Amino acid sequence: FSNRTTGRALMPDDPVRIASISKLFLALAVMRLTEKDQLLALDQDVSYYLGWTLRNPAYPDIPVTLRMLLSHQAGLRDGINYALPMDALLEDKLRDPIAWDTDHKPGEYFTYANLNSPVIAAVMEAATGNRFDQIMQDEVFNPLAIDACFNWINCSDEKIAGAVTLYRPNGVVARDD
């Protein structure tokens, strides 16, 4: 079922939360923005875009770049929850040393970290002046004619009507909180 309340059957085109595969779309949008009027540069210190200094506290002299973030080599770790509350300040959260790998220099070690994605999204927003979900519509979904979205306000009525509710094995609705 796509929704236990309505009993509607799950259909192949029903939208579902795609989680980590969204990183592929994120990377595509970043690459489009690097080519488009050179709004982004892969090897630029992301602090330039963010307006505040992003550094691994153990390596304060090594800049963090988009290339590092996209390749999971920036040194960020999921020591803090990457699904940050709406009122959280990214700058404050990333000053916490548990968000960082302090044993390896940025750019020299791979470890998968979900926390890279909100940082990349913040860089994209700062560089373009647009919200992340709208950037994704403009740079990826609309040009590829994909009826998809990162925010329900950008989804078609048809997709919203077919939205799948994800349940945990115990029957509880799956949430990111």
Provide a descriptive summary of the structure in words.
The structure is a single chain. The protein is built from seven helices and no strands. The longest helix is centred in the first third of the chain and has 14 residues. It is mostly helical.
Summarize this structure as a short list of keywords or feature phrases:
177 residues, 31% helix, 7 helices, mainly alpha
What is the rounded Rg?
18 Å
Distance between the termini: 23 Å
Largest sheet features:
none
Unreliable stretches (pLDDT < 50, length at least 5) are none
Shape: globular
Tell me how many strands there are: 0
- Give the oligomeric state: single chain
Count the DSSP helices: 7
- The share of residues in helices is 25-40%
Q: Write the H/E string, N to C.
A: HHHHHHH
Strand content: under 5%
Strand-helix topology:
Elements: H1 22-35, H2 47-50, H3 66-70, H4 90-93, H5 116-128, H6 132-141, H7 157-161
Summarize the structure.
The chain is an all-alpha fold. It contains 7 helices and no strands.
